[in-house]
Amino acid sequence: MDHATLNLEDRLLYRDGLMLVLDKPAGLPVHRGPGGGPTLDDHLDALRFGLPARPALAHRLDRGTSGCLVLGRHRKALARLGRLFAAGAVDKVYWAVVDGAPPASEGRIELPLARRSDTRGWWMKVDPAGDAACTRYRTLARLHGATWLELRPLTGRTHQLRVHLAAVGCPIRGDGVYGVAPRDAPLHLHARSLRVPLYPNRAPVEVEAPPPSHMRAALAGAIEAGSPEFP
């Protein structure tokens, strides 16, 4: 994908007066890092839709992760969304293709996480003295040398899913930090869906994002064999 000509309106999954949900493309960072280059933030002015301020991120996804990304349309909306995310009230479901397989077909990974380096705050490790972190997982299909997993992070630590899966012996395919893939390999991690209880007297907002092309290719055989379908 040519990120320089990215049209975010084409990737809009949900819009109302408070919230936008985007299908974030894989490989695009949400904020500018020390190396520079294009970011999602460069394109947010196109999503004002008549409001005086541009929307802002209510949470984050890693550069390599695709899928559902929530933005608040103004300050009060961001504050409400921030409280929901902080309280763990937003149900998040991810899909991943991992090399190998986890120790059981489904279960929980409960391993505390801490920074590996004081100078690289995003670089994490399993550490008994770290912050509690819990991930639920479920196998959707076995692939050739790999496994398609559904992941539900019950906490929101940096790189939680990537570190947890690497720690139990099945790193996410394409992870060049916690796995053995080349650093430019596409990460097979996708924020599949969100369920946001945004309005007290309404049903939660439910949004789903189709997987990117590199994950569709990896999952093609499983779909043919009768595993969960996707649009």
Structure description:
The protein has helices at 75-86, 160-167, 213-224, and strands at residues 12-15, 19-24, 56-57, 66-72, 91-99, 106-110, 113-115, 124-126, 134-143, 146-153, 189-196, 205-208. The chain has 231 residues and is α+β, with helices and mostly antiparallel strands. The strands form two sheets. Strands 1, 2, 3, 4, 5, 6, 9, 10, 11 and 12 form a ten-stranded mixed beta sheet that branches. The longest helix is centred in the middle third of the chain and has 12 residues, at 75-86. The protein is globular and about 50 Å long.
Write the layout of secondary structure elements.
Elements (H helix, E strand, L loop, with lengths): L11 E4 L3 E6 L31 E2 L8 E7 L2 H12 L4 E9 L6 E5 L2 E3 L8 E3 L7 E10 L2 E8 L6 H8 L21 E8 L8 E4 L4 H12 L7
Parallel strand pairs: 4-11
Antiparallel strand pairs: 1-2, 2-4, 3-4, 5-10, 5-11, 6-9, 7-8, 9-10, 11-12
The assembly state of the depicted protein chains is single chain
Task: From the alpha carbons, calculate the radius of gyration and give it in angstroms.
Answer: 18 Å
Rounded mean pLDDT is: 91
- Taking pLDDT < 50 over at least 5 consecutive residues as the criterion, the unreliable ranges are none
* Strand percentage: 25-35%
**How helix-rich are the residues, as a percent range?**
10-25%
Number of helices: 3
Helix and strand sequence? EEEEHEEEEEEHEEH
- Measure the end-to-end span: 19 Å
Structural class: alpha+beta
What is the overall shape?
Answer: globular
Question: What's the story with the biggest beta sheet?
Answer: 10 strands, mixed
The number of distinct β-strands equals 12
